Amino acid sequence: MSISAVNSTLVRESGHIDGRWCQAESGATIAVYNPASGEHLGQVPDMGETETRAAIDAASRALPAWSALNPKERARLLRNWFDLIIEHKEDLARLMTQEQGKPLFETRGEVLYGASYVEWYAEEAKRAYGKVFSAPTGDKRALSIQQPIGVVAAITPWNFPNAMITRKIAPALAAGCTMVVKPSEETPFSALALMALAEQAGIPAGVINMVTSSQAAVVGRVMTDDARVRKLSFTGSTRVGKLLYGQSADTVKKLSLELGGNAPFIVFDDADLDAAVTGAVISKFRNAGQTCVCANRILVQDGIYDAFMARFKAEVEKFVIGNGLDAATTLGPVINKAAIDKIAGMVDAALTEGAELVTGGTRHEAGELFFAPTILGNVSQQMAIASQEIFGPVAPVIRFGDEAEAVAIANDTPYGLAAYFYTENHSRIWRVAEQLEYGMIGINEGILSNEIAPFGGVKESGLGREGSAEGLADYMETKYLCMGGIR
């Protein structure tokens, strides 16, 4: 084990099923590496079908008692978990930087962001309200109640290994559901540390079960085939989301799918240019561009294109690239070799198609998985890089003429997760916001996600919402009660 400066009680090399830390029955393991240095950090069990079934068994056994627990008691336990996360925030941040790569200032922010969902749903646990309706006749009464949907399976990604866990577990537990979670094999230690803190918080055995595995197809198939799993929550690629969607049809599961994006970032000629540049840098390069909501295409109006590009280039060239544990670092590595090879290939293809290299464009000397922050100018919507999710520190910039053209370019994609635009015209704000085909819109703002807002997309970017009261409702079923014989 090579994880440094982290409380040893949080570093677990085991899965967690039915209140027990355990290994894979096969004895197989997954090696975990630091993407910044290539250092071997440790290993976790490579679990499969047997362990996933055992986790579903445990969640099913725990469900009756957990769902019957008074919501105030569920809220108390979630609050305990939140308090422990805050107490160990620095350990969790350092752990995440070592296995995921993002700089410490970002991982510290993610821990607080992830904790905010636990706090929010500790409060929302007591607010699963029913309704009373006007009955059609005087001898009847009509009402509805909200009940937990049941056992929930969750599959989470590597790019936000803390927040994507809490954003799913917290509302599920608040609603009275039990969970089986498969974290990414790239970043399992952050998930297991949260599991250790949940155990310390007093959350009962079987309520949260964590299966570490590199066998995503096997684990996913067990989750989707088992009728006891009534909901599946997945964050990841659209391709895999579609597979899980199809596999869930036989048991008619409820799904929350947060899938791929192709976010446009539109800068109109009446925008506050300094604010737009700041927003573009934050949105595009956070986590080295490895976020589903980051600006994937930057659209700039003709009249300010040159001025925007000059300021944007100057800001992007200020990034300090290196190991995230170094205090000076502001941009870390990408997650693995497949990712950096894909990014390099996309940049090369765009240059071949006629894009202009403004800055960057090459792998960086900091290490094997570092790519220089890159701006590509004069990109057209017809280039491959304008239609594919980049997931790296590369900003393609597209020039446009008028508002109608910007909206048309922005909507020319099967995805609809997040979009951003900058303008000082209040009429344009309403027009553009209503025309953009996206689930979330940042208006004069480059960061839009928080625990009080419904996070999710439209079209091929997914189903359902996370965060807000809607996030709690996604883990509940509405039951209608019709009462007759009222005299």
From TrEMBL:
PANTHER family: SUCCINATE-SEMIALDEHYDE DEHYDROGENASE, MITOCHONDRIAL. Its EC number is 1.2.1.16. GO terms for biological process: gamma-aminobutyric acid catabolic process. Belongs to the aldehyde dehydrogenase family. Keywords: Oxidoreductase. Transmembrane segments: none annotated. This is Succinate-semialdehyde dehydrogenase (NADP(+)). Residues 21-480 form the Aldehyde dehydrogenase domain.
